[in-house]
Amino acid sequence: MRASAPFHAHIYYSTEDRPAAEALHAEFVAGRPLVLFVGQMTDRGVGPHPIPQYEVHFLESARAAVVAAIEASGLRALVHPLTDDDLADHTTLAQWIGDPLELDVSVLDPPGHNQGVERFGKNDL
Fold first, then answer.
1. What backbone phi and psi angles, to 5 degrees, belong to 10?
2. Helix, strand or coil, per DSSP, at residue 7
């Protein structure tokens, strides 16, 4: 991967985990580690994600630092590249931190078109 390749992380949380999720969210908003976009905390499942989560956008060059911050928080997360294959991004190309969740892959974009690429670093879900 190129250092400038786009990535997403989806940080999942339960009601009990919300304080840790808020703390990590604040860390990302403050720019530690470097992320390009921090999404709103969504207290319900959305898209393929079955439980509350928020999304951060970053480049491959920040991946190690982002993963380390998530691991230090103790939260569960899905970290994946943004390619033209949304299904592969969320499955075979993805890295889980903590226990994996079953995603609703039926709502993902078809190969060759990934709306996540279009909104990378720009807006929320």
1. -110, 115
2. strand
**pLDDT one-digit tens code per residue, 40-59:** 999 999 999 999 999 999 99
Res 107: pLDDT: 87
Structural contact between residues 20 and 83, judged by C-beta atoms closer than 8 angstroms: no
Position 84, amino acid:
D
pLDDT higher than 70, residue 116: no
Interatomic CA distance for residues 85 and 70, integer angstroms? 25
- pLDDT tens sequence across 16-40: 999 999 999 999 999 988 899 999 9
Instruction: Using CA atoms of 109, 9, 119, 110 in order, give the dihedral in degrees to the nearest 10.
Output: -10
What is the sign, positive or negative, of the torsion defined by CA atoms of 81, 103, 100, 17?
A: positive
String of DSSP letters for 65-91? HHHHHHHHHT-EEEEEE--S-HHHHHT
Query: Could you give all domains of the chain from N- to C-terminal order, each with its CATH number?
Result: 6-118 (3.30.70.1240)
Q: Burial code of 81-99, b = ≥16 C-beta within 10 A, e = fewer?
A: bbbebbbbbbeeebeebee
